[in-house]
Amino acid sequence: IITMTYSEIGNYGVNFDDVESEKIHAKGLIVKNLCEHESHYKSQKNLKEFLTDNNIIGISNVDTRFITKKLANEGSKICAITTENHNFDEILDKIKQYKFPKDVVSEVSRNNIIKYSKENNTKTLKLGVLDFGIKNNIIKEILKRDIDLTIMPYSTTSEEILENNFNALLLSNGPGDPKDCALIIENIKKIIGKIPIFGICLGYQILALALNAKTDKLKFGHRGGNHPVVDLRSGKVFMTSQNHGYKVMDENLPDDIEVTHRNLNDNTIEGFESKKYNIKALQFHPEASPGPNDASIIFDEWLESINCKNKELI
Question: Is position 287 annotated as part of the catalytic site?
Fold first, then answer.
């Protein structure tokens, strides 16, 4: 369930050009004031219609500032929105008994392989993507480049991945605690060192765990499109889009990992690389959408490095 921090929600309505997944994965929405008469040239329906069409419950006229302050101080909470006339004690008992599912990646990953191929181009890079809940704009950004793209389910085995002879592998964003992805982590360990790998968000955290780093829950999750991140090698600062509740820890960081980016708000690690294993990974979203496009150049830099490696092999 998502609670919005801004007081007026729905002013712009909804347009389908900006949709980032196959469906809404949240179960509910909490807002203070709901605007039912949107005003935007791209709007195709208002927020209430969009939630109703997708069978998502919402509630308005709520003091979201109070909720936000409580969540900021105490962390995420298990909660419920109901239209049924339950006794309060019964609702509270159901909340206490609820266990958040651990296997959330399986709920958001596609279960089939999708391929995008460039016709009649033997020099095109072949990129494989493991889908942990991939945003549509990551796919769009990749397809802007000269890439043959294959998107695979999260459960694709290391043997199946390597059989495709990809030039590189991308581990996508996704939800949940990275430590719950034990089978995925073990699978990635079998691929490390055999193919260049790039990780974004959850993919970044999974790579860190596969390299024997540690992750932990942030007291204040990074949400929104205005997080400043510094590239430690160039000193350049990017404004970035972020949506995560976990971090890679500085403590006992393996020698194989070199920190490349840090968050300027709380100094947490935002990116690393391993030259030994040809790995690059970012906690933030270089593809933005929504958010600033400062960091989109990182896609080009990574793909160029793969191209250079391929030319060396030729």
Answer: yes
85 and 125 assigned to the same domain = no
Catalytic residue among 222, 227, 244, 285: 285
Query: What pLDDT digit, counting tens, does each position of 79-93 carry?
Result: 999 888 778 888 889
201 given a catalytic annotation? yes
**Residue 206: CATH number of its domain:** 3.40.50.880
Residues 7-23 have pLDDT tens digits of: 999 999 999 988 888 88
Nearest by Cα to 62 from 85, 88, 34, 84? 34
Number of domains in the chain: 2
Q: Give me the catalytic one of 38, 201, 222, 261.
A: 201
The 3-state DSSP class for residue 105 equals helix
169: number of CA atoms within 13 Å, CB side? 31
227 is catalytic: no
Nearest C-alpha neighbor of 10 from the set 40, 39, 34: 34
- Domain range enclosing 129: 105-313
Sign of CA dihedral 193, 241, 22, 98: positive
Same domain, 109 and 93: no
In this predicted structure, the answer to whether residue 188 has a pLDDT above a threshold of 80 is yes
- Pair 7, 56 in one domain: yes
30-62 burial code (b ≥16 CB/10 A, e <16): bbbebbeebeeeeeeebbbebbeeeebbbebee
Handedness of CA 201, 203, 205, 208 (dihedral sign): negative
| Cα 172 from Cα 250, distance rounded (Å) | 22
Q: What does the alpha-carbon distance between residue 40 and residue 52 come to, in Å, rounded to a whole number?
A: 20
Residues 113 and 151 occupy one common structural domain: yes
220 and 269 share a domain? yes
